[in-house]
Amino acid sequence: MPADPTSGKSVQNTAEDDRLKSATEREVHWKRWGPYLSERQWGTVREDYSANGDAWNYFPHDMARSRAYRWGEDGIGGICDRHQHICFALAMWNEKDPILKERLFGLTNKEGNHGEDVKEYYYYLDATPTSSYLKYLYKYPQAEFPYDHLVDENRSRNRLQPEYELIDTGVFNENRYFDIFIEYAKVNGEDILIKITACNRGPEAAPLHLLPTLWFRNRWDWGDEYERPQVVQVDGVDGGVLLEMDEFHYGKRWMLC
Length: 257
What we know:
Elements: H1 15-24, E1 33-34, H2 55-58, H3 61-64, E2 79-81, E3 86-93, E4 106-107, E5 117-118, E6 122-127, E7 133-141, H4 147-156, E8 177-186, E9 192-200, E10 209-216, E11 230-234, E12 242-247, E13 251-256
Antiparallel strand pairs: 1-2, 2-3, 3-10, 4-5, 6-7, 7-8, 8-9, 11-12, 12-13
């Protein structure tokens, strides 16, 4: 029990102190899984294979849902292992959007009147150093997400004018949005509980589809000697769904829903 240098009194170690110590001494890999999943992989220089080095136009947000990344992945409120082989994040759909809400939307540096800018509302509410507990909040409009309107309006403004934000579009009027909380809590270095809570803040009932998504970063189509990972559903589980993963780096892992 160490002493507080300012008072001379002994200070009780917390559970997180113990986790940090065991992680440093490599007894338990508390930091193997964490919030390492990118929020925006599209438009980055890592994914730029253009002839002129124009990463933004070569791989914009609009293409991210239909093209494979090479060097990373992205998602909303997600986690992954430290090598980003196995990824988990939440996708959503309000039955109004033309696409699933799978990643944060933003303007490229040529689309915004003040350059690159994310046009979303999301908050990191809590976290421990070992990611033994994480809490994230995403605010999802019940109306159709105004992708084109945000681009057109910001592109038309000059640098002396204010930016046009998501809240300026009116999609949050009358609180017609969902607060979606995503929480992660670790039992140990490998056993992770995931809890997703959606709250309708609007005055009326509204549809919302929550799509927890598990996937692997593609390391096998680029010439690397990796076997393609597999996921199969295990039968005979009462009251839930059990998925068994077999991944070249970590072997077998399971996800119970």
